[in-house]
Amino acid sequence: MPNGAELFSQTLKQLGVTHVFALVGDHLNEALQVLDRDGFKIVDTRHESAAVHMADGWARMSGRLAVSLVTGGPGHTNSITGIATAQATGVPLLAVSGQSNSKQRDRNGFQDMDQLGLARSAAKYCASPASASQIPFYVREAYRAATTGRPGAAHLSIAVDHFTDRVEKVAPLIGSVAEHRPGPDRSEVSRVVELLQTAKRPAVIAGSGCFWAGAGQALETFIERAQTPLFTITMARGMVSDEHPLCFGYADPTISRGAEKALQQADVVLVLGKRIDYRLRMGGLFAPDAKVIQVDIHPQELGLNRSLAVGLNCDCRLALEDLNLELADRARPDRSGWLAEVQRGCDEYAAEVDERSHRKSQPMHALEFYRQMREWLPEDATLCWDGGDFVHWGRYVMPARKPGHWMRLGALAGLGVGFPIGLAAQVLRPTQRSIVVTGDGSLGFYLAEMDTAVRFNLPVIIIVGNDGGWGVERELQAGRYDGRTVACELRRTRYDLVMKGFGGDGVHVERPEQIRPALDQALASDKPFLINVEIDGAGSPFTEAQLRPKKN
Length: 552
Known about the structure:
Blueprint: H1 4-14, E1 19-22, H2 29-37, E2 41-44, H3 48-62, E3 66-70, H4 74-89, E4 93-99, H5 115-119, E5 125-127, H6 135-147, E6 153-159, H7 160-164, H8 186-198, E7 202-206, H9 208-212, H10 216-226, E8 230-232, E9 247-250, H11 257-265, E10 268-272, E11 291-296, E12 310-313, H12 316-327, H13 336-357, H14 366-376, E13 382-385, H15 389-397, E14 406-407, H16 418-428, E15 434-439, H17 440-443, H18 449-455, E16 461-466, H19 471-480, H20 495-502, E17 505-509, H21 515-524, E18 529-534, H22 541-547
């Protein structure tokens, strides 16, 4: 007779899971033993939230469900930030927590608490099997919830005794986990084409919904047939390379004033798989009379913060394929004037940024580092961006070239997330380099995961812009409170030596002539490698955007 842990393992295998990101604890010993015996790759971290963030990163880059496994009680509470991050970002995650003995529930048992009550506000789906025999059913239900519609985080709490209990009869499985992705209505497609054909200044924003739908080729075909400028954001970064003549980079007005200007001038804006949220100023980024078209698989998003000319509740790839069919026999519109105007706006801002990059300072400006990094960057590298002004400069300067190779914190914007996501990238793509770019403040959240990188021989490259403080908040406070700052200062710690203490390698960069040798040394190393870059804490475009007077 199998026990609950064996049923858990078997069900995960049936669902195609190969890796489990975990941190050991009393509730998990049986499950971990069985998973290891059954051939799963167990990647164990130093903090529960890091385990969940690694699973989140694995799911984002692979496009498949990922699984985290942590112990109950404080292990479960530590995991909540990771669960909330995956849910806010729309990532298919199964976050499993062990739980106190079911026979001692509500009797002050060891680490007994209401785990589901805590997780419900953070996850799309929460459940706890009432017996070992129910584990397969609930794992499949969690999978279904995490992967259908808008992806999200599913949580299961499984009692320690349910992992060890033997089962004579397994609860029957009801239904399949196959997903139906809806297509668009033909009349809606015709209306969108009509709006695009009559537009003088159309623009397209592609978000994560395009990535999860596998819409890269359809998106590229669409912008070429419609002759529209494209801006990408979230998981859509790199789906069409920033080097494509119709792709104008980040759809983030806090990073690129060129994008901001174009999107403010557009008369028709097609938003594909992207929430019209705070990043798009709740729709206020677009002109008041602009006609907005939104495509989203999650119907609740349509028209939430901005009235729409057309709202399509469907899969982004299917919508784009139908639009492409409608456009196939039509002459491509001449939008050379509009495209040149968009390019001019982007070029003007690029020239302003380039001029800053040549200003000499001591310590060096972040842009001095990125000018050399851009020339050095391997084509297949995965860039994992964390938090800090140093990072925001890089997000503007560096190009996104490949889908799934540009990772950010996610919609919840929790600092520190980039490091565990970068570790997941190195696990998933062992022959390609994962490069984590972070500020010194952000690095501190999961500093001990340097140990994880060394234990698993992950040659991740970590680039730390060290300005000795919480740079964004320091700049914001200084700008808003006449130069007075509170709780914003840190030490300029030698994080390269910290990495060496964990068994990795690293260098300290203080001058521009040290940059390229440091990057080359990192790329040649077979160890986790940290470049500690001393930088001037100059406010980035992101910070400057926060300090600009707000328009009513």
